[in-house]
């Protein structure tokens, strides 16, 4: 019998079936990857395990005993912790206070500071981070250190099952490697680890076995090293994906966007580039190099210190509203805070920049329905709130707004971050299609195979300086990385 067993788990949200008869087992000393499309039920299954939502059917066994988590606190005290994409730490509290939050040690009715520090230090030592200052407020540390502190919090209470939900979504490559080392140590210590990720290279790096969910049901699984990426993708989407990266013939035309010596208040330091109508130009580089700041400066979200921006016939800086009117559209990497109005409906978000002063709900729904069908957005309908959608479908709504606006220049910042392979395929097809229609696409991505797969030319940002753009055939993953770190 496995250390953790979920049998026949079912969960409904109204008329929506989120999980139906799902099974999952994890051994001690095992990292088990949970993969599937956005909306396939992965996070819901783990939220059931972590006590965030209650199950409607099925049973959970933990170390051979029935496990009935009442809430996340009870699950944690019972030995199950979940490390979410959005960390649940209090930035104003110290490291030690966060590690022992809700599990404070007292003596004679008073907080036992020395015991608290001993427990926190022991947990961090086990993760190889005993050098972290326990007295510093958590908010002063970078995301990678805060993530380590959250893992230490799980160890401090004695958790034997730890769930990681897309843990590298906000990490640099080096920080992700450190996280993988921590997961290796958790495996060696006999923990049962569940790892949710859309990146197959991560799944292969950390996991021993995997389980695929599709439409809330089991769709396959096995020993990770015994399956190819294509076989796993086929399980996820229920069909074979012959070509993840479409490569249609693009015919670049006139220059649609040109930057000359562009410099922001902090970054970029110097960027000169031309993007032509009908081409996809990618920007590679390390996190913090200035790629996002470049797009923000072009779109008017950040001030321009010096240099020239020419967008179609318009020269000089402009506000975001003016950029929309001039024919540019931007997709932010932060879709929750900048890319979407989460409290508004799918239809309202899709038509946000094109709505006339007065519209009927029926017209709005019909106008949005075509975008829903075109992009395959999984939603109950145009009037469903965007916050109720999965991450991949939220991303499609943000892209649908650019399509509805019929922009001539697309500025896409990490367009496929945190979404599943089937949704990525649709977005790649969309990027290819808009380029074929003569639109100019400038795309920033941290995923090198993506840039090499969809772009016509690629430039590299390093410490705020943008390299000349070269045809994609002249680049490899190794040369892109070498260029990114060459002047660091």
Low-confidence segments, given as residue ranges, are none
Rg for CA atoms: 24 Å
CATH homologous superfamily heading of the largest domain = P-loop containing nucleotide triphosphate hydrolases
Q: Count up the helices.
A: 17
- CATH class membership of the largest domain: Alpha Beta
Task: Give the quaternary arrangement of the chains.
Answer: single chain
Number of strands: 23
Largest sheet: 7 strands, mixed
Helix content: 25-40%
Please tell me the CATH architecture of the largest domain by its name. Answer: 3-Layer(aba) Sandwich
Number of structurally distinct domains: 2
Q: Gap between N and C termini, in Å?
A: 51 Å
* Global structural class: alpha/beta
| Residue fraction in strands | 25-35%
The CATH topology of the largest domain is given as: Rossmann fold
Shape: globular
Average pLDDT level: 87
Give a verbal description of the structure.
This protein has helices at residues 42-49, 72-78, 95-99, 113-126, 143-156, 173-188, 200-206, 229-237, 291-299, 320-326, 335-339, 346-350, 361-375, 391-405, 421-436, 448-454, 477-486, and strands at residues 4-13, 16-26, 30-36, 57-62, 65-66, 80-83, 106-107, 110-111, 161-165, 192-196, 209-214, 217-223, 255-264, 271-276, 280-285, 304-311, 314-315, 328-331, 409-413, 440-444, 457-462, 465-466, 470-471. The chain has 488 residues and is an alpha/beta fold. It has two domains: 4-237, 3-Layer(aba) Sandwich (Rossmann fold); 255-486, 3-Layer(aba) Sandwich (Rossmann fold). Strands 15, 18, 19, 20, 21, 22 and 23 form a seven-stranded mixed sheet that branches. A six-stranded mixed sheet has the order 6-9-10-3-11-12, with helices on both faces. It has a four-stranded antiparallel sheet with strand order 2-1-4-5, with helices on one face. Helix 4 packs across helix 5. The mean pLDDT is 87.
């Amino acid at each position: 019998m496995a250390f953790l067993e979920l049998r026949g788990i079912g969960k409904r949200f109204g008329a929506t079936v989120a999980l139906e008869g799902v099974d999952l087992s994890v051994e001690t000393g095992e990292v088990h990857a949970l993969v599937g499309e956005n909306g396939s039920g992965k996070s819901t299954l783990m939220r059931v395990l972590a006590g965030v939502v209650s199950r409607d059917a099925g049973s959970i066994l933990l170390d051979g005993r029935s496990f009935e988590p009442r809430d996340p606190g009870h699950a944690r005290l019972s030995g199950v912790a979940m490390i979410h994409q959005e960390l649940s730490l209090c930035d104003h509290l110290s490291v030690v206070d966060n590690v022992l939050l809700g599990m404070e040690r007292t003596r004679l009715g008073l907080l036992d500071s020395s015991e608290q520090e001993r427990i926190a230090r022991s947990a961090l030592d086990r993760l190889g981070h005993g050098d972290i200052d326990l007295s510093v407020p958590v908010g002063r540390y970078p995301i990678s250190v805060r993530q380590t502190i959250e893992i230490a919090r799980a160890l401090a209470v004695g958790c034997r099952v730890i769930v990681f939900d897309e843990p590298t979504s906000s990490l640099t490559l080096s920080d992700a490697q450190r996280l993988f080392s921590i997961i290796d140590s958790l495996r060696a210590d006999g923990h049962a680890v569940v790892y949710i990720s859309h990146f197959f290279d991560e799944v292969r790096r950390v996991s021993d076995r995997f389980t695929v969910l599709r439409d809330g049901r089991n769709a396959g699984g096995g020993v990770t090293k015994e399956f190819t990426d294509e076989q796993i993708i086929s399980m996820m989407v229920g069909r074979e994906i012959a070509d993840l990266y479409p490569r249609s013939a693009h015919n670049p035309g006139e220059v649609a966007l040109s930057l000359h010596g562009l410099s922001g208040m902090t970054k970029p330091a110097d960027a000169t580039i031309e993007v032509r109508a009908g081409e996809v130009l990618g920007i590679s580089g390390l996190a913090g190099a200035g790629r996002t700041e470049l797009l923000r400066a072009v779109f008017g979200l950040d001030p321009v210190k010096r240099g020239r921006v020419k967008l179609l016939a318009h020269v000089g800086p402009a506000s975001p509203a003016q950029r929309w009117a001039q024919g540019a559209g931007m997709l932010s990497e932060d879709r929750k805070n900048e890319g979407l109005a989460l409290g508004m409906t799918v239809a309202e978000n899709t038509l946000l920049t094109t709505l006339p002063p007065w519209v009927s709900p029926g017209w709005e729904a019909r106008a949005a329905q075509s975008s829903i069908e075109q992009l395959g957005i999984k939603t109950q309908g145009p009037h469903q709130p965007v916050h109720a959608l999965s991450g991949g479908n939220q991303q499609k709504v943000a892209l649908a707004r650019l399509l509805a606006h019929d922009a001539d220049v697309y500025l896409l910042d990490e367009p496929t971050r945190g979404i599943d392979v089937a949704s990525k395929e649709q977005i790649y097809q969309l990027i290819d299609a808009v380029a074929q229609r003569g639109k100019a696409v400038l795309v920033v991505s941290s995923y090198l195979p993506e840039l090499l797969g969809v772009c016509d030319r690629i430039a590299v940002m390093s410490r705020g300086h943008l390299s000349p753009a070269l045809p994609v055939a002249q680049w490899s993953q190794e040369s892109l990385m070498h260029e990114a770190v060459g002047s660091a």
